[in-house]
Request: fold
Amino acid sequence: MNGIHSGSWKSAYLCKKLNDMEAITIHPKDEEQLSAIKYILKTLKIPFDKTEKGENPYNSEFEAKMKRASEDKKAGRYKSIKTEDLWK
Reply:
């Protein structure tokens, strides 16, 4: 998911999908830098989404998987593998 997140604390997160696996995060120091980044993205026709402060930028399916994994671990539903046994 492409996205930009900015809040009153003047940080912005720019996520650009690259090969469905890679993202970048940008932290402008002020509104001037944030405006410049938005201008560059628009000029280069790079799509981005703005996420409002307090809005969750994560995919709900991903969050559900992470929650389920955490619950499984707490309930003891996991298997430990020693490092030396990984490639056997």
Remarks:
- Residues 1-19 have pLDDT under 50 and may be disordered.
